[in-house]
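Worked example 3 (structure in, sequence out).
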């Protein structure tokens, strides 16, 4: 009798929470100020709702390792599939590097030991390669890590929110909460962080790549997306309130804001509680990277097997079939980034790497929404266990709204809209980095096209040779 899959509905829900809820992104969002609450509600309606519905339909209709690559390729062909798989993959090692540069400070908080540059880099490299090693094994082997990380994330969010409520009632708040302050802010600094909110709401489709490890994926995927989406929205808003109570908006650090909040709310910079929070926060960073690696690596490997990513990504473990090529490349790219980081001009390294990761990640999602609409037209006969209802206008709105939100957030994150020296030194590296990675992706497409053309010519030549041989015999 075949052994029952380990991935229950509760495990699926916790895995979605682990993937989608990003504890380290709470501080950049809190930097928006009180208007973040407006943007949360606005984006939950205009982005999360349509994105969740579309992911549920596509994820249950087209099961497999391809994820968004599969959906876009089926709708628009291999060239767009190659772009999506490249953007989707390259964001991961950049994100891995952004979290790695946070580790030395957290280890310092836990141990009290200050690390020189070389020591910090060693810690960062250890973080990276532990993630790579764990990603060599199937998701079912890592369920306890994903579930544990999800529980820890929710615990951190509840603690920071609860402390915020207590301090607000007993000591007052660092930021004044008025009706006018809750209205949307349209200054460039605030708008540049809105992409983080959208980033915080992405990742539901990763659960689709776990389908083979689920007991009943066609039911569990939409159920886990809906349940986890509601939980995630609540804990994001609650934790953001806690940070807003603790730190004046203009003083929030994008990298250390969460830990700064715990220190300010408790009035202590050391002690067992702060050490425990730093340790738990460090564990969530591992959970984030492990959960995302399982989806990203499968997608990159699957795309490579279909000729849309470099051949190295096709490498799989002979023991368990896991995509080791993609995992190794994650480690190599992230390692190069953290080693060269000390010589970069922008020393807010977390935000620099995280912003570049944001840009590439958001780019990968732009074609997903029109792909949903086109697949409804060109592939109407495929059974859809979960099908979004509604007429053309409603479905069109589901496609247009989230796509517009992504494009607007990309403009404010990737392009320098202020031209003073400080803004340019912070923004231009992100712009240049995004252009370089986009061009690199186009180079992959071009090389693949040349190879396919040569293969086609060789096949044609062989066929002509066979015909001539046959003619000669006659």
């Amino acid at each position: 009798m075949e052994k029952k899959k380990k991935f229950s509905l509760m495990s699926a829900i916790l895995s979605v929470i682990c993937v989608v809820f990003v504890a380290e992104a709470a501080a950049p969002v809190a930097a928006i100020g009180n208007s973040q609450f407006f943007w949360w509600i606005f984006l939950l309606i205009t982005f999360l709702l349509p994105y969740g519905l579309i992911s549920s339909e596509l994820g249950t209709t087209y099961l497999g390792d391809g994820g968004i690559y599969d959906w876009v390729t089926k709708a628009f062909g291999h060239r767009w599939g190659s772009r999506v798989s490249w953007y989707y993959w390259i964001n991961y090692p950049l994100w891995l590097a952004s979290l790695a540069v946070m580790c030395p400070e957290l280890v310092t908080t836990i141990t009290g030991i200050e690390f020189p540059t070389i020591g910090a880099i060693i810690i960062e490299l250890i973080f990276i390669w532990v993630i790579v090693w764990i990603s060599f094994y199937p998701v079912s082997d890592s369920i306890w890590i994903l579930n544990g990380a999800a529980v820890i994330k929710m615990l951190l969010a509840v603690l920071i929110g609860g402390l915020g409520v207590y301090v607000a009632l007993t000591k007052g708040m660092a930021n004044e909460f008025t009706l006018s302050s809750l209205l949307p802010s349209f200054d460039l600094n605030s708008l540049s962080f809105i992409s983080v909110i959208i980033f915080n709401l992405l990742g539901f489709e990763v659960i689709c790549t776990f389908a083979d490890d689920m007991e009943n994926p066609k039911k569990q995927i939409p159920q886990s997306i809906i349940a986890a989406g509601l939980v995630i929205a609540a804990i994001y808003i609650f934790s953001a309130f806690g940070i807003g109570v603790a730190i004046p908006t203009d003083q929030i650090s994008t990298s250390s804001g969460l830990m700064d909040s715990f220190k300010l709310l408790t009035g202590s910079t050391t002690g067992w509680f702060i050490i425990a929070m730093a340790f738990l926060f460090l564990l969530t960073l591992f959970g984030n990277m492990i959960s995302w690696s399982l989806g990203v690596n499968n997608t990159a490997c699957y795309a490579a097997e279909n000729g849309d990513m470099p051949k190295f990504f096709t490498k799989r473990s002979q023991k368990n079939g896991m995509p080791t090529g993609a995992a190794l490349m994650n480690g190599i790219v992230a390692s190069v980034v953290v080693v060269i980081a000390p010589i970069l001009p922008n020393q807010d390294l977390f935000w620099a790497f995280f912003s570049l990761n944001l840009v590439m990640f958001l780019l990968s999602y732009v074609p997903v929404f029109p792909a949903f609409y086109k697949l409804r037209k060109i592939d109407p006969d495929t059974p859809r266990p979960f099908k979004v209802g509604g007429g053309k206008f409603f479905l069109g709105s589901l496609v247009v709204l989230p796509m517009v939100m992504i494009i607007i957030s990309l403009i404010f994150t990737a392009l320098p809209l202020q031209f003073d020296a400080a803004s340019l030194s912070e923004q231009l590296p992100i712009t240049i980095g995004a252009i370089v990675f986009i061009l690199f992706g186009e180079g992959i497409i071009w090389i693949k096209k040349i190879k396919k053309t040569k293969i086609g010519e060789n096949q044609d030549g062989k066929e002509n040779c066979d015909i001539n041989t046959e003619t000669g015999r006659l």
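Notes: The CA atoms of residues 33 and 454 lie 56 Å apart. The longest helix spans residues 421-473.
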